[in-house]
From TrEMBL:
Signal peptide: none annotated. This is Bestrophin homolog. It is a multi-pass membrane protein. It comes from Strongylus vulgaris. The keyword Transmembrane applies. It is found in: Cell membrane; Membrane. It holds the Pfam family Bestrophin. Belongs to the anion channel-forming bestrophin (TC 1.A.46) family. Calcium-sensitive chloride channel subfamily. GO terms for molecular function: chloride channel activity. The chain crosses the membrane at residues 31-53. Its main location: membrane. GO terms for cellular component: chloride channel complex; plasma membrane.
Length: 105
């Protein structure tokens, strides 16, 4: 789908870039808004609980749990995750290629 933005940028003002950035059709925000919203809600809830609900002893326990998981982040190698991602991308590409109609067939 082709979107024409020439009318928007013809009268350029300081907020024109932001207006283009938040244009809903074919926007990057449309692709990631659910994941971003979930992340921000969970992050905000954890930060509020850590800062306002937990006392100093409980904060130290929470920090110990965070350190525990941080040390074990290397147990899942990045190459493994990247391999799964590349396989998924390649399978999508081959599926699209297989669905192209050819005249010779």
């Amino acid at each position: 789908m082709t979107l024409n933005y020439h009318r928007v940028i013809s009268n350029s003002k300081p907020w024109t870039f932001l207006r283009l950035l938040f244009t809903w059709k074919a926007s990057i925000w449309k692709a990631i808004y659910l994941e971003l919203l979930c992340f921000l809600i969970v992050y905000g809830a954890l930060a509020a609980v850590y800062r306002y609900v937990l006392d100093s002893d409980q904060q130290k326990i929470f920090e110990g749990i965070v350190r525990f998981f941080d040390e074990r982040l290397d147990y899942i190698p990045l190459e493994l995750v990247l391999g799964f991602f590349c396989t998924k991308v390649f399978n999508r590409w081959t599926t699209q290629y297989d669905n192209i109609g050819f005249i010779d067939k």
